Amino acid sequence: MRADLDVTVDLVRRLLAEQHPDLAGLPLEIVANGWDNVMLRLGDDLAVRMPRREVAAHLVEHEQRWLPALAPHLPVVVPTPVRVGRPSRGTAGSGAYPWAWSVVPWITGRRAADVPARRRRALAAPLADFHLALHTPAPPDAPVNPFRGMPLSARGAAVRARVERGIVPDGPHVLDLWSRLVGTPGWSGPPLWLHGDPHPGNLVMSPDDRLAAVVDFGDMTSGDPATDLATAWLVLDDAGRAVYRARLGERYADDDPVWLRARGWALSMATSMFESGPETQWVRRLGAEALHRVLDDA
Question: Are 59 and 34 within 8 A, CB to CB?
Answer without folding.
Answer: no
